[in-house]
Amino acid sequence: QLQASGGGLVQPGGSLRLSCTASGLTLDYYGIGWFRQAPGKEREGVSCTGITDGSALYANSVKGQFTISRDKTENTVYLQMDSLKPEDTAIYYCATGFPTLCLLPYQYDNWGQGTLVTVSS
């Protein structure tokens, strides 16, 4: 079971670190994706990381702003979000799978409950 956490209310320019934790599975064995869904919009890929080489991919909208990382000892994947903007407001989800195109939601079959990020002054 996956669980995304760490969301909250933050002012523009602020930072948050989201965590994706798992029970009953080892995240190292899976590709991990972070996604977000804003009200009235489709779910979009934000960032993803591969299994073997630790490679990371980012949506153009968050390049240089977000950083994905794994902590093997904690069985957790993080999404560090800096310089947050109001348009980053969304529910953020993490997912596991074996994607070939890792920013596409349909490539994942195991989803956690999301965490709400609100960027507002």
Can you give a write-up of this model?
There is one protein chain. With 121 residues, the protein is mostly beta strands. It has strands at 2-5, 8-10, 16-22, 31-37, 44-49, 56-58, 66-71, 76-81, 90-97, 108-111, 115-119. The chain is built from no helices and eleven strands. Strands 2, 4, 5, 6, 9, 10 and 11 form a seven-stranded mixed beta sheet that branches. Strand 7 and strand 8 form a beta hairpin. It starts with a strand and ends with a strand.
Number of helices: 0
Oligomerization state: single chain
In helices, the fraction of residues equals under 10%
Overall pLDDT, averaged? 94
Which consecutive residue ranges, at least 5 long each, have pLDDT under 50? none
Main sheet record: 7 strands, mixed
Distance, first to last CA: 34 Å
User: What is the 3D form?
Assistant: globular
Portion in strands: over 45%
Number of strands: 11
What structural keywords apply?
121 residues; mainly beta; 7-stranded mixed beta sheet; 4-stranded antiparallel beta sheet
Q: What is the strand and helix layout of this fold?
A:
Elements: E1 2-5, E2 8-10, E3 16-22, E4 31-37, E5 44-49, E6 56-58, E7 66-71, E8 76-81, E9 90-97, E10 108-111, E11 115-119
Parallel strand pairs: 2-11
Antiparallel strand pairs: 1-3, 3-8, 4-5, 4-9, 5-6, 7-8, 9-10, 9-11
